[in-house]
Specification:
Helix content: 25-40%
Number of helices: 10
Bound molecules: adenosine-5'-triphosphate, magnesium ion
């Protein structure tokens, strides 16, 4: 027995003729934060979804907490109960209050009493800073607040592992920080986390390991300073260049004729460093 919370070996997944995951090997140890980065369509979400069997792998093994989810005798519902998942689009129940969103699975799946579920939900809503919103409906909350409810809901099931699939991608920029700060706090409390993200500053600061995926394979992995700071693979460098300097690359095409208007200097675009990585 290792202390690996997640142990994936030789994972393959296809959708029809599209081979989306190509022999993935991945371990996540207890308390580790592993960030997965990579271009759109590289298989990041599919990988995450295979970890709780929202997608059925076609070959390979997926062990979570030592339990082989790909074993046909495995009790998937029991295994899933301790895997929290947070999606890009919050996925809250719109007809339930914040508190009810955080109690419903506890009562129906974990078979807790309503009073115990309520106590646990309230604790987790305090944890994410939303104790004053317990009776609101999701539609009344900002995206950042809704995502924090989604995190509190997942935490209320006592997860051993939290999966995050681009949890801040759907948020207005000014709301990203509040969600990342809850995630940072969880990481510091020792939660094991597998996070698909484009937030490079978060990955650099919080991750124990960064994994770069491209075309269904892990191209490079290592400590954030290595993978983000001095990647060895050309594909990683190209990706980081595109992500970190998105405006610079497209400025000329974007400006077209206005790039150098007659009689004047080229239009100055504000310099943006959305990821805070410029020294
Ligand atoms: N249920 C599905 N049926 C068919 N094809 C799918 C399905 N889910 C994903 N795919 C395809 O598999 C490939 C990988 O998708 P995936 O969503 O895992 O990529 P991703 O790295 O998460 O991309 P993004 O950064 O855009 O979220 C894509 O080509 C996608 O179109
Ligand atoms: Mg995705």
């Amino acid at each position: 027995m290792t202390d690996a919370v997640v142990d994936i070996r030789g994972l393959n997944k296809s959708f029809g003729s599209l081979h989306v995951l190509r022999g993935i090997d991945l371990t996540v140890s207890t308390g580790d934060v592993v960030c997965v980065i990579g271009p759109s369509g590289s298989g990041k979400s599919t990988l995450l979804r295979c970890v709780n069997l929202l997608e059925q792998p076609e070959s390979g093994t997926v062990l979570v907490g030592g339990v082989d989810l790909t074993d046909r005798d495995c009790d998937i519902d029991a295994a899933r109960r301790h895997i929290g998942m947070v999606f890009q689009q919050f996925n809250l129940f719109p007809h339930l209050t914040v508190l009810q969103n955080c109690t419903v699975a506890q009562v129906t799946v974990a078979k807790r009493s309503t009073s115990e579920a309520t106590r646990i939900a309230r604790e987790n809503l305090v944890r994410v800073g939303l104790e004053d919103k317990v009776d609101e409906y999701p539609a009344k909350l900002s995206g950042g607040q809704q995502q924090r409810v989604a995190i509190a809901r997942a935490l209320s099931m006592d997860p051993n592992l939290m999966l995050f699939d681009e949890p801040t991608s759907a948020l207005d920029p000014e709301l990203v920080g509040e969600v990342l700060s809850v995630m940072r706090q969880l990481a510091s409390e020792g939660m094991t986390m597998l996070v698909v993200t484009h937030e490079m500053a978060f990955a650099r600061e919080v991750a124990d390991r960064v994994i770069f995926m491209d075309a269904g394979a892990i191209v490079e992995e290592g400590r954030p300073a290595e993978v983000l700071g001095s990647p060895t693979e050309a594909r990683t460098r190209e990706f980081l260049h595109r992500v970190l300097e998105p405006t610079k690359l497209s400025t000329d095409e974007f400006l077209g004729d206005r790039a150098a208007p007659a009689g004047g200097p080229a239009m100055e675009l504000p310099k943006i460093d959305p990821h805070g990585l410029t020294p």
